[in-house]
Predict the 3D structure of the following.
Amino acid sequence: MSSPASPDQMGGQTPKAFKPRIFSGIQPSGGLTLGNYLGALKRFVEKQDEGIETIYCLVDMHAITVWQDPAKLRQQTREGAAAFIAAGIDPARSILFNQSQVGAHAELGWIFNCVARMGWMGRMTQFKDKAGKNSENVSLGLFAYPALMAADILLYHATMVPVGEDQKQHLELTRDIAIKFNNDYGVDFFPVVEPLIEGAATRVMSLRDGSKKMSKSDPSDQSRINLTDDADTIAAKIRKAKTDTEPLPETVDGLRDRPEAKNLVNIYSALSGQSVAEVVAEFANTQFGSFKPRLAELAVARLSPITGEMNRLMADPAEIDRILADGADRADAIARPILEQVYAITGMIRSRGK
Ligand code: TYM
């Protein structure tokens, strides 16, 4: 371990209080789902509208930790950007960009590969789930994935990260990396980030199996609602969603041990803005045969304007690329000076261009 960095190595700065700044990301590894919308996108818009500085990223470098067809990756990255904007992200107020356009992510990711410990990474449940029995054959990038995620966040000295429940462990690792870096180098350089996991839809479940997360990588398209689904498809998927045979309960407690019922009520709550208790009160003793059409109607009312706007935006890919380039320039302007301080702290000579 080296001696603490001097103020000179810290770019002349003394330890600071970090200003509130939000960072979050979504992988363009497939079409976005209702889970992504309720667990992430919708809340990204709320945070932007609260007036906090917000930086949102399509993490294409994360996506290639598993195989991506290049043409599809390009298409899904643009579609992801269109979804952000259609859902209410204003690229003038928030910074919206794709990760690979800001090289500082990969650079800090490498440094964090040297901070994070093998044991920490080996405990990541998402890695274990994704690798399954095939861990000798998955990419090294999939194993290192959470260190790059920590870099995404800490590169901006972000203090808050809105995510769904499934990202909690990765954010704990981000905190561990920040703390270890600060300790190893004797600095107070990286903030300890707060995960924002809030609301009724932090874990939207599959429509076919209430014990599995709704996911863009589920082989069954019936398991999820995609942001590109039309009204008839959404209604049909909800109509066919798995449920039990009981009517809806009279109390929130009555949803316990009824994962499919709980999931549909949570989705209704998140889409309507009503609390789960209010939804349960409104639909107490209602059969699914009556509840499902109401849920479908609500989902279509909320999602079809977004789908329509996405389609409109996708007709002009050059405009999307221009927005991503502008976002990347603004992201880079924040990230580069922070990365240069990291290089100084870690003892790298940076004499070019001086
Ligand atoms: P990803 O692309 O899998 O998902 C993007 C966001 O959507 C949330 N989400 C859900 N929320 C509720 N219910 C669901 N069924 C559901 N499915 C997905 C995720 O929790 C996430 O918030 N590792 C991240 C991407 C990432 C990132 C970051 C996030 C890379 N760098 C930095 C935050 C900060 C991921 O794979 O998300």
Residues 23-27, 35-36, 39-40, 59, 62, 149, 152-153, 161, 163-164, 166-167, 170, 201-204, 213-214 surround tryptophanyl-5'AMP (CB under 6 Å).
